[in-house]
TrEMBL record:
It comes from Thiomonas bhubaneswarensis. InterPro entries: Methionine_synth_MetW, SAM-dependent_MTases_sf. It comes from the Bacteria. This is Methionine biosynthesis protein MetW. SUPFAM superfamilies: S-adenosyl-L-methionine-dependent methyltransferases (SSF53335).
Length: 192
């Protein structure tokens, strides 16, 4: 996870019930539990990350997000997190709609492919490698990349309302020219 824990945690109300989709090693859920009194569940497919999350005392379910979230009822969580996981999901529109259905608030973050340094690398004829996108084109786990502006269009297309949006630059929130200057994008979405 490249977005600092505190940037995302500040968006999660104290005492929330949280579902973390693609929770990785459980670091975010453990942080929310320890600093904000939250409870919740992580979903992860990677067995090693699943074990790391469980070792942190995080309740975690091994599950492939491509299967959807039909096991959860509408608004069964206060917050659903998708931190750096949306670019790895084939059925992006469905995953986004399900995030908004299952949670009263969806918080998503991903590397902003329109950052100026990425644009510069493309101008030199190379696909970018950055701290937020650390893989070469031939070994990346990402199925796709996204930009700040593209996500706003996707949310509208899915009938979701963007409650808050900002970029992250040097570990801090920024709202100034996030499409160009932010290395990561963060969006809070709700049903239309």
């Amino acid at each position: 996870m490249s977005t600092p824990l505190s940037v995302i945690a500040d968006l999660v109300p104290h005492g929330s019930r949280v579902l973390d989709l693609g929770c990785g090693d459980g670091r975010m859920l453990a942080h929310l539990r320890d600093t904000r009194g939250c409870t919740g569940l992580g979903v992860e497919i990677d067995p090693e990350k699943l074990i790391a999350a469980a070792e942190k005392g995080v309740d975690v379910l091994q599950y492939d997000l491509e299967q959807g979230l039909s096991m959860f009822g509408d608004a069964s969580f206060d917050v659903v997190l998708q931190i750096d996981s949306l670019p790895n999901i084939r059925h992006t529109e469905n995953a986004l709609r399900e995030t908004a259905r299952v949670g009263r608030l969806g918080i998503l973050s991903f590397a902003n492919f329109a950052h100026w340094s990425i644009r510069l690398q493309i101008l030199t004829g190379r696909l970018p490698v950055t701290p937020e996108l650390p893989y070469e084109w031939y070994n990346t786990p990402n199925l796709r990349v996204a930009t700040y502006a593209d996500f706003e269009r996707l949310a509208a297309h899915c009938g979701l309302r963007v409650r808050e949006a900002f970029g992250v630059r040097n570990g801090r929130r920024t709202s100034f020219a996030p499409g160009l200057l932010a290395t990561e994008a963060v969006f809070c979405v709700q049903r239309g």
